[in-house]
Specification:
Helices cover 37% and strands 16% of the residues. With 214 residues, the chain is an alpha/beta fold. Helix 5 links the parallel strand 4 and strand 5.
């Protein structure tokens, strides 16, 4: 069976080193073939992104241009309306055949999974990989989600390579405490965001005056 493909979605408004480091850590720790970075068009549970889709896509491409195993996927931007993860992973499953797919989630995202559209169907298409900060254990408050976690949890990462979908694997990964919200605030106030995101992305933001007047 081919190596698994990781899936990391988000607004990437803007993309920063926290996103990129998480993807690289998962590739190396779990022996993934690649991670697909998928910027969404319209989030279902939060305000619309501040930067336009074409800018967020351009920043992602700049951030990943030297990393061949980080692949920018604009499928959600091409799809009108609200971006639902179930639609994205269903489409990826059809394209990938029997290649294992791993949806990468932080603990906060996983703990709110029960609020996602058709969340119970996600494991029919992907594995969940929960990236936990050292010392932080994933403990959902929702009873149904806790049942799913108990039922599908796997102790060995090898299951991500031998099954196409259906398992939940937790991995402790050093976490860069970087916030896109904080970066936008810094840019709005004219502060220097160096070392929080790639230099090429900073230059793009300055060239296009993104986040300056919001």
């Amino acid at each position: 069976m081919a190596k698994p493909i990781g899936i990391l979605g988000g607004t990437f408004d803007p993309v920063h080193h926290g996103h990129l480091r998480l993807a690289i850590e998962c590739i190396e720790r779990l022996a993934l073939a690649e991670v697909r970075l998928i910027p969404l068009r319209m989030p279902p549970h939060r305000k619309p992104p501040q930067a336009a889709p074409e800018h967020r896509l351009a920043m992602l491409k700049l951030a990943t241009e030297t990393a061949s195993n980080l692949v920018v996927d604009d499928s959600e931007l091409q799809r009108p309306g609200i971006s639902y993860t179930i639609d994205t992973v269903s489409a990826l499953r059809k394209k990938s055949g029997r290649i294992p797919l791993c949806l990468l989630l932080g603990t906060d995202a996983f703990n709110m999974l029960h609020t996602w559209h058709r969340w119970q169907s996600l494991l029919d298409h992907v594995h969940f990989v929960i990236a936990e900060r050292p010392g932080v254990v994933c403990k959902p408050e929702n009873a149904e989600l806790n049942t799913v976690l108990d039922k599908h949890s796997a102790r060995d990462a090898s299951i991500l390579h031998t099954k196409e979908n259906g398992s939940i694997f937790r991995v402790q990964i050093p976490w860069l405490d970087i916030s896109a919200t904080r970066i936008r605030d810094m840019l709005r106030m004219g502060h220097n965001p160096s070392f929080l995101l790639p230099d090429a992305v900073i230059e793009y933001i300055r060239t296009h005056r993104l986040y300056a007047d919001t």
